[in-house]
Specification:
This protein is mainly alpha-helical. The protein folds into two domains: 5-93, no CATH class; 112-242, no CATH class. 63% of the residues lie in helices and 0% in strands. It has twelve helices and no strands. The longest helix is centred in the middle third of the chain and has 37 residues, at 73-109.
Amino acid sequence: KCNTFSQEVNSSTFGNAMMELFLEKFSLEELADMPLEELAEFLQTKGKNRFGDPKCVASTIQKAVRSSYRLDKVVEDSIDILLGTSIAVIRTYQQQIKELEKSIKRIMDGLSQTLESIHGIGPVFAAGIIAEIGQIERFDDETKIAKYAGLYWRTHQSGRFIAENTSLSRNGNHYLRYYLVEAANSVRRHISDYQEYYVKKYNEVPKHQHKRALVLTARKLVRLVDALLRSHQLFTPERCVKV
């Protein structure tokens, strides 16, 4: 419908305001000729006032519309139907995700807030990690948890050196690995010690920097997770130094 939209407009195509815009029966000509203030107000209303500069976004939308080629009426109608159907499916998934997150939060509210006390870890990540680890007593120490998650490298690698092309083990619990890696990516944005560690590992190699640094940061996070679950204590910044 608007082939240059994603290149011109600096906003998510799947945001609420943009999906509402595509759902409305605006033709490209109507969007191009709409007063800038009116389009900006539409975006702010549908986007719940989340646009910092709605006029700028409205202007880029109109620029994208004017530079897009026009479709045949039959083709445009078909695309409108497809867009409407796709958006309805997306919104169904979004609503289901919200309901699941509420259910997870209700369950987690009845459990110890140990992992949620770590800045950057919410109920979803905490629930996933706890569910996959189960009873912490199953593991002798944090190295066993890391191995269970597949956060280890092959034994033929020399010492503690991990080259940029060294493959991570493909064994282990993939779900636990996912939760730990995603949690580490969030934690590093909230705790400076983890961000500094991530940056250090990122700068050690010329290739695969982000993936390697993130996995190593997740491996560091395992030590903290193990310590908190065993002690049943909440996170404090001092623990970053200890682990």
